[in-house]
Amino acid sequence: MLYFSKLRIFSVIIFTLILSYFTISNFFKIDDNFFSKNIKLGLDLQGGSYLLLEIDNKPVITQKLQNKVMELKNFFKDKNIITRNYTVDDNSIIFDTTPDKSDELNNILDDDESEINPYYQQYKSHEFDFVKDQDSFKLTLSKYGLVLLKNASLDQAIEIVRRRVDEVGTNEPNILKRGNDRILVELPGLDDPGRIKSLLGKTANLTFQFITQNTEESFGTEKLEFEDGSENAVVSKRIILSGDNLVDAKPSMNSQTNETVVSFTLDRVGAKKFGKATSTGVGKRLAIILDGKIISAPSVREPIIGGSGQISGDFTFQSATDLALLLRSGALPAPLNIIEERTVGPDLGQDSIDAGIMSLIIGFILVVLFMIYKYRVFGVIANLALISNLFLLVGVLTLFEATLTLPGIAGIILTVGMAVDANVLIFERIKEEIKSERNPIIAFDSGYTKSRTTILDANITTLIAAVILFFMGSGPIKGFSITLGVGILTTLFSVYFIARLFTAFYVIKNKEKESLI
Amino acid sequence: MRELSFNKFYKSFNILSIVLIVTSLILLTFKGLNYGVDFKGGTLIELRTDLNSANIKKIRDIFNQLNLGDVSVKNFGNDTDFIIKFEKQNSNDPKFIDNIKTKLSGSIGTVDFRRVENVGPKVSAELLQSGIIAIALSLAAMLLYIWIRFEWQFSLGAIVALFHDVIITLGVFSLFSLEINLSIVAAVLTIVGYSMNDTVVIFDRVRENLRKFSDIKIFELTNISINQTLSRTIITSATTLLALLSIFIFGGEILKGFSLAMILGVIFGTYSSIYIANPILVVLKVSQRTIVKEDKD
Question: Most exposed of A179, A235, B139, B274 (fewest Cβ within 10 Å)?
């Protein structure tokens, strides 16, 4: 165990130097893509906001079922199959057909080539599961149909969230999918997420609908509240124009009223529709509705044919800017709820870094002194291994651009405390061996050999804990598991290659000495 | 080094351990754990105020006016820093935190919100569940590992020692109403790893000695093995504790609970390797035949 070939010595040195280089590179700016890797600081260290959003898919499912009803009706009409008595509940569609056609209808729905009920080869499932009860059919979204629907709406939502966050212009935001109904938004450096939260909390479904003369709701109309809650109005359900037709929106000043407004530009289709509606509707009030609330309802004085217009509604410059931003980035397919939020201010982050580094230095010095006190020369060797261990550990974290969190720093300090264990096991074993073996080289050798299984056992147990934490833990805790786990690997390397190398040199040089350890 | 007779005290320490475990279980059942916002849901605000302008009572009065349910206010680290926790979580209202800030600034001067955590009931339930699964999984993984590496008598000893450490550490947290949050789960898992590590080192030696000496009874043999590994046990516990104490004292308030749990875990883990894991080998009458039989397989 004490013999090292030249090649191996060389490889150990090169390996250690490369990783140490990455460690040191964290402290300097190097303008080179490959070599300028840095450890990323977690939000708890650099400050920032972590938001977990959950999409409320109910409206998406309802919408999907309603669209499906239309599709079914048209599809069967074309096929000369009479269907009737459609009803839609939370997650299914029920309808009847005539007795003579019910088997044919059943076959159409069950066909793998079915147009109306697509079959997904990879999941071995149709979009809809159905139950036939004589002439009555009940269609329910299948498990995979639901998954696909949710994924599609999540993908769309992520895109919108990304646009909104980008528009606000925060520094390197991180937007990730979590499961099939959640979005994780990490905003480094942002210490007041209020504005982003209010932007993400809005679906931003914009529609233009005419206000009717009625004061009560009836078929084809709905009663909506004004945004300030002051009054209600009954509007026609017919949508003249929706946010989809907008190509641009920006805050501006209305020169006549000196009010802050949001001016918008429509695409060609939108401009046409808007022009037509406003020409027939001169004199009527047109409600501008955002997420089910009326922002304002100006009277149409003349047809608007230019494809652009203004929304007024008691805006401040900030609220006009935000509304314009929401309209530019598009509507979310469904509302998002913020179900978890963690925000750390930048000064707390810096305090945590300072405290972490302080305790690392002090913990390190205490362990180093203790080892020298206990083992003298071999204490120095163990300490050299410990120092290179730290360089290796930070080097590996840098190389993989891992995220360092406060618990991660604690993991490094804990590694300092536990890393000497392997060397202690070896040294203690050597002490025992030296009692019965006169040749120090053989004693050292068997000290290393006999302690090996124990060291592996002991480290694997901690590694198991680290791996489980990595998979189960979130955020900062994951950071801890990474440093703890990588720390074990670098510890084993530093003990078996670096400390053993030094030990070998020392023992071979001083083999004549009495009481070597 | 003079040999110490650890085995003389097996009985008395076992009784002590049983008392501690029973007490811990009673505490855990009736007093329960003080879950933080991670597991209970709710809002946590860490704020820093201007010198001497605020005290706990003032801040509590302000929060009580806001109707946020149960509010707890504590100093955090020093006189100007406070931790405020309340059940209500209102993360969907973007003005929620702003309102609190305005209200506070009005009566106690400038406040700096250093940290805001807001966890909804669904997320906290999931976090608690995954925390429990993580701990259960790690115990199961340790059991599996030790079962592969050792004979069942050793596995039983090691696992009982693990449960002992985890239960008593949680018992201490319950007794002093210390907060259980995500980092405590990490600490508990590390304790599991450390305690196992410590037990394995002694067990490896017991097994080695069982092969060497056929005529020494297990009662004596465990004592010899403990003594042979004692200086390692002490040195490693010492360096680990030095590192942990350094985190506890200098690592800032956020890591206090985490490092405290680990300090307790290391102490109980070291103790249990000697006084729980080994006596179980004695009770199970492990002898050379136990391992020879296995070796033949």
Answer: A179
Q: Helices A406-436 and B218-250, interaxial angle, to 10°?
A: 140
Residues 96-125 (B) with a CB less than 8 A from some CB of A: 97-98, 112-120, 122-123
Q: Do domains A58-146 and A206-317 have the same CATH topology?
A: yes
Residue type, B22: V
Tokens (6 digits) for A341:
């939020």
Cβ atoms of B264 and B43 within 8 Å: the answer is: no
Backbone angles phi, psi at A218, to 5 degrees: -140, -170
Unique residue bearing structure tokens 């069982």: B210
Contact A476, B182 (CB under 8 A): yes
Same domain as B232, residue B152:
yes
Of the candidates A395, A366, A358, the one whose C-alpha atom is nearest the C-alpha of residue A383 is: A366
B116 contact residues in A (CB cutoff 8 A): 341-343
| CATH of segment(s) A206-317 | 3.30.1360.200
Establish, for the pair of chains A and B, how many residue pairs have beta carbons separated by less than 8 Å: 223
Put simply, whether B212 touches A (Cβ < 8 Å) is no
| Same domain assignment for residues B252 and B198 | yes
Order of strands across the sheet that contains A259-266: A246-254, A259-266, A308-311
List the domain range (segments joined by +) for residue B112: 42-119
Of A201, A410, A424, the CB nearest to B232: A424
> Are B140 and B24 contained in the same domain?
yes
Contacts of B251 in chain A (CB under 8 A): 355-356, 358-359, 409-410, 413
Pairing between β-strand B179-180 and β-strand B34-35 as defined by DSSP bridges: parallel
Q: Does domain A58-146 have CATH number 3.30.9?
A: no
Statement to judge: residues B103 and B149 lie in one domain: no
Per-residue pLDDT of chain B (297 residues; tens, 9 = 90+): 568 899 999 999 999 999 999 999 999 999 999 999 999 999 999 998 886 667 888 888 888 888 788 889 998 888 889 999 988 766 567 778 878 888 888 778 788 889 999 999 999 999 999 999 998 998 899 888 988 889 899 999 999 999 999 999 999 999 999 999 999 999 998 999 899 999 999 999 999 999 999 889 999 999 999 999 999 999 999 999 999 999 999 999 999 999 999 999 999 999 999 999 999 999 999 888 888 765 554
Task: Report the topology of domain A6-44+347-509.
Answer: Multidrug efflux transporter AcrB transmembrane fold (1.20.1640)
Query: Which sign does the torsion angle of CA B31, B33, B36, B41 carry?
Result: negative
If phi over 0 gives left and psi between -120 and 50 gives alpha, with beta otherwise, what is residue A292? left
- Chain B segment 231-260 residues within 8 A of A by beta carbon are 231-232, 235-236, 238-247, 249-252, 254-255, 258-259
Residues B230 and B282 in one domain: yes
Chosen for mutation from B78, B92, B146 (greatest number of chain A CBs closer than 10 Å) is B92
Residue where a domain stops, chosen among B76, B101, B119:
B119
Of A194, A343, A370, the CB nearest to B95: A194
d(CA B35, nearest CA chain A) in Å: 16
Q: How many domains does chain B have?
A: 2
Side-chain-facing half-sphere of B175: CA atoms under 13 Å: 13
In this structure, are strands A259-266 and B42-49 parallel, antiparallel, or unpaired? unpaired
Verify that B156 and B284 share a domain, yes or no: yes
- The domain boundary, picked from B88, B119, B150, lies at B119
Contact between chains at B185 and A366 (C-beta distance less than 8 A): no
CATH code of the domain covering residue B55: 3.30.70.3400
